[in-house]
Amino acid sequence: MNIHSYINNDILPLLPNYPVKMVRGMFSDCTNTHIPVVEDNHLLGNISEDDVQGFDPDKKVSDYLYALDLFFVYKNTNWLDVLEAFAKYNANVLPILDENKIYVGYYDLIDIMSLFKETPFLNEPGGILIVERGSSDYSFSEISQIVESNDGKLLGAFISESQDDVVEITMKIGGIGLNKIIQTFRRYSYNIVAGNEEDSYLEGLKKRSDYLDRFLKI
User: Fold this and answer.
1) Cα–Cα distance for residue pair 117/97, rounded to 1 Å
2) Long-range contacts of the stretch 161-166 (C-beta < 8 A, 24+)
3) Residue 209 has pLDDT above 70, yes or no
4) pTM (2 decimals)?
């Protein structure tokens, strides 16, 4: 999935000589958690809205380079790794560098989440099935084989929870009812956490921000 069309430059990066007072004003005019700081097209780091409130307004960004958060993704980073980076750094803005480490823009979390919502996982009709098993006892190839051997269509799957050597796997399955598939998973010693074929269930998941938060933690 190509996400290059989502590279954003609506908010220009900061320069080290910008006064803190001006940066505060920029944050008040946007919803960004961070704004990149760039010098000669190279990323120095990201200044956070929380941190800038504690800075002396009469000083410059260059006086606080030590407080910048250095995080970014490369232009060729796939969209799942981009989502993971958003969660890891607790940010809604993610700077992008090219192969020469030149700053080219940033991703906005809202744009990337809208891309996720367009995937077959959320858009195509089907049922949600959540199973769990020991972290060393499962494989996605086995999960796919179980679904397809029962004439199901695996639209997507991800690890939605991992705790005490047990992983929870959430699947979207289309093409057939879930009963036969659930029975087969039980025969393969998977514990069934939840299974629901109601479209309303999936619609509810779309509206729950914690569902998206869990997805970001894969």
Assistant:
1) 25
2) 161/132, 161/214, 162/135, 165/134, 165/135, 165/136, 166/132, 166/133, 166/134, 166/135
3) no
4) 0.63
